[in-house]
From TrEMBL:
Residues binding S-adenosyl-L-methionine: 50-52, 86, 127-129
PANTHER family documented for this protein: 7-CARBOXY-7-DEAZAGUANINE SYNTHASE (PTHR42836)
Taxonomic lineage from the root: Bacteria, Pseudomonadati, Bacteroidota, Flavobacteriia, Flavobacteriales
Domain Radical SAM core: 31-210
Keywords from the named record: 4Fe-4S, Iron, Iron-sulfur, Lyase, Magnesium, Metal-binding, Queuosine biosynthesis, S-adenosyl-L-methionine
GO term, biological process aspect, one: tRNA queuosine(34) biosynthetic process
Keyword Metal-binding (UniProt): yes
Encoding gene, per UniProt annotation: queE
Binding site for [4Fe-4S] cluster: 44, 48, 51
Gene Ontology terms, MF aspect: 4 iron, 4 sulfur cluster binding; carbon-nitrogen lyase activity; magnesium ion binding; S-adenosyl-L-methionine binding
Family: Belongs to the radical SAM superfamily. 7-carboxy-7-deazaguanine synthase family.
Descriptive protein name: 7-carboxy-7-deazaguanine synthase
Length: 210
């Protein structure tokens, strides 16, 4: 198959630029501590300066892989699949979620919400970024809002984002890893004063797992 044919399949979402896939314990948010199979899709132009997977940004670095292959691998490990990135909504998620649903699997997405929502999801973790805000649809459908706290201004940003999601959406503040020693005490204090928020930590990093 030519490169042009592969790229055409990627544009349709029938193939995806696959950075990595792995079975591990979910480290963040509502499902922390539970087993899940992660599919990390390459490609992101949101450009967070503190991103800890910058190697995911350039989709051209990651091999176009057939959705059917990705789904077969995922189904052999777990009944809960997490699609992350990069920014997975850069691509058409309808083919992969349809195929995963046909296997009877539960499908979660971790997204900045910066692009149109595609795919069928059991759980949407929305982690908005200032550089490219979420679409209205993603705000309304998010099951959890996870705001990364890097500095003091991020508390204001968090409240602005919380005002956009539904009343049922679970609200999390998570310290940016390199600032955790400084920001964790401030987050704890904030959540104690504003208990509708919860603290999320990157527990997989404390556990030294992917």
């Amino acid at each position: 198959m030519s490169k042009e044919e592969q790229l055409a399949l990627v544009e349709k979402g029938e193939w995806l630029p696959l950075m990595e896939e792995f079975y591990t314990i979910q480290g963040e948010g509502f499902y922390k501590g539970t087993a899940a199979y992660f599919i990390r899709v390459g490609g992101c132009d949101v450009g967070c300066h503190w991103c800890d997977v910058k190697e995911s940004w350039n989709a051209d670095l990651h091999p176009p892989t057939a959705v059917s292959t990705i789904v077969e691998n995922a189904a052999s490990y777990s009944d809960t699949i997490v699609i992350t990135g990069g920014e997975p909504l850069s691509w058409n998620m309808n083919p992969i979620t349809k195929a995963l649903k046909e296997k009877g699997l539960k499908i979660h997405i971790e997204t900045s919400g910066a692009y149109e929502l595609s795919g069928e999801w059991d759980w949407i973790c929305l982690s908005p970024k200032k550089m490219k805000l979420p679409t209205e649809e993603v705000y309304k459908k998010a099951n959890e809002l996870k705001v990364i706290i890097y500095n003091q201004h991020d508390f204001k940003f968090a409240e602005e984002q919380a005002a956009q999601v539904s009343e049922d959406c679970i609200l999390y503040m998570q310290p940016e890893w390199s600032k955790r020693d400084k920001m964790i005490p401030e987050i704890v204090e904030y959540v104690m004063k504003n208990p509708r928020w919860k603290v999320s930590l990157q527990t997989h990093k404390y556990l030294n797992i992917p």
